[in-house]
Design a protein that fits this description.
Organism: Prunus avium
CATH superfamily of the largest domain: Single-stranded right-handed beta-helix, Pectin lyase-like
Main location: secreted
CATH topology of the largest domain: Pectate Lyase C-like
Strand content: 35-45%
Distance between the termini: 82 Å
Largest sheet: 27 strands, parallel
Protein name: Exopolygalacturonase-like
Number of strands: 27
CATH class of the largest domain: Mainly Beta
Number of domains: 2
Subcellular location: Secreted, Cell wall
Shape: elongated
Structural class: mainly beta
Keywords: Cell wall, Cell wall biogenesis/degradation, Glycosidase, Hydrolase, Secreted, Signal
Number of helices: 3
Radius of gyration: 24 Å
Order of helices and strands: HEHEEEEEEEEHEEEEEEEEEEEEEEEEEE
Length: about 400
């Protein structure tokens, strides 16, 4: 009997040891070690908890429990010794004054981390209302930097899920130099009048997946910049905002190609644009490429410009449209796009006179217009799309090569 009890005790010990080894170490900012309390400034406690967790040789978890906490600013830097999770269950609040930040373009940043998980159902509240009135980046190319809510730089094999970004002063999430990372089950919210509050902006990144997100902002719900490849956007609801955009491209020298973009199963409601590719006129040399871009199964609800290629994009007062955009757009498809347009011009493909768009396809497009500004129509310039299953009004009559007016949106 004693031998049997000893055997069972040993078995229980091994089971407990195995379980302990499998569970990540937990670094709770409200524990006695770190001393944070709801209603207080959590900046130092969170920095110390991250430092300890990042140094852990086994998988670790930093926890911010329920409650509201002040966070001045933070940069969580790797590399870490093992996979690491930050679980924010409460609300983190940024300072209201953008001038209080030592890194003026970032509130919360994650850098050089492999196997990061950011989760927890919590809220990153940028408290951006004061900054929106001071933000003139929509018309001033030399505007002062304003903090982004969440910046991800050189993150790999990671997940950002089940969090809310609220009222960011600038972009909500900026993704740069990242690979093999998924953003899922996100809520991103700012009022329609908030300026430059893109939901998720991606640049110089590869294999990024955005899925099951609800995004409503004062700018693009998702925007994809140069040197981005294999980006997938699925099951995203967008509105208000400026739509789901590639670009703007062609503003700076030595921009790199954008390739392999899929936008699928998304719904856009009351947005300024639907699915859009935008490039600047008078692009500096050498030219770049936007290629292999595919939109499929998109629902438009009262969208102003449902399908748009705009190679005359210029939000500022001064742009020279005479030298055409040098960004080459090819292999683009719009398939099974349905719903309602807020304006009679439901399809607008304005390509570059210098490098016309090639291999553009419109398939199964069913858009309606119920207003009184004229009949439903479409426009193509410097492109001859392949058209299948599209009503005559949307069959994209081709215009001449004469310059069209610059667009400001």
């Amino acid at each position: 009997m004693a031998l049997k009890l000893r055997f069972l005790a040993m078995l229980l010990f091994l089971l407990l040891a195995s379980t302990a080894k499998a569970n990540p170490s937990v670094f709770d900012v409200t524990s006695a070690t770190y001393g944070a309390k709801p209603g207080s400034d959590v900046t130092k406690a969170l920095a110390k908890a991250w430092s300890d967790a990042c140094a852990s040789p086994s998988a670790s978890k930093v926890v911010v429990p329920s409650g509201t906490y002040k966070l001045k600013e933070a940069t969580f830097r790797g590399p870490c010794k093992a996979p690491i999770e930050m679980q924010v269950r409460g609300t983190l609040q940024a300072p209201t004054n953008a001038g209080q930040f030592t890194r003026p373009d970032t509130w919360v940043g994650f850098q050089y981390i492999d196997k990061l998980t950011l989760s927890g159902g919590g809220i990153f509240d940028g408290q951006g209302a004061l900054a929106w009135g001071q933000n003139d980046c929509h018309k001033n190319k030399n505007c002062k930097p304003i903090p982004i809510n969440l910046r991800f730089e050189f993150i790999t094999n990671s997940r950002v899920q089940d969090i809310t970004s609220l009222n960011s002063k600038n972009f909500h999430m900026h993704v740069f130099g990242c690979k093999h990372t998924t953003f899922q089950h996100l809520t991103i919210t700012a009022p329609d009048e908030s300026r430059n509050t893109d939901g998720i902006h991606i640049g110089a990144s590869t294999s990024i997946n955005i899925t099951h997100a609800k995004i409503g902002t004062g700018d693009d719900c998702v925007s994809i910049g140069d040197d981005s490849h294999q980006i997938t956007v699925t099951d995203v609801t967008c509105g208000p905002g400026h739509g789901i955009s590639i670009g703007s491209l062609g503003r700076y020298k030595e921009e790199k190609a954008v390739t392999g973009i899929i936008v699928k199963n998304c719904t856009l409601t009351n947005t300024q644009n639907g699915v859009r590719i935008k490039t600047w006129p008078d692009s500096p040399s050498p030219s770049s490429i936007a290629s292999d871009i595919h939109y499929e199964n998109i629902i438009m609800v009262n969208v102003s410009n449902p399908i748009l290629i705009d190679q005359l994009y210029c939000p500022y007062t001064r742009c020279d449209q005479k030298p055409p955009s040098k960004v080459k757009i090819n292999n683009v498809s719009f398939k099974n796009i349905k719903g309602s347009s807020f304006t009679p011009l439901a399809i607008k493909l304005v390509c570059s006179r210098g490098v016309p768009c090639e291999n553009v396809k419109l398939t199964d497009i069913d858009l309606t217009y119920g207003g009184d500004q004229g009949p439903l129509t479409s426009l193509c310039s410097n492109v001859r799309p392949t058209i299948t299953g599209v009503k005559k009004a949307l069959a994209c009559a081709t215009s001449s090569l004469a310059p069209l007016p610059l667009s400001k949106k």
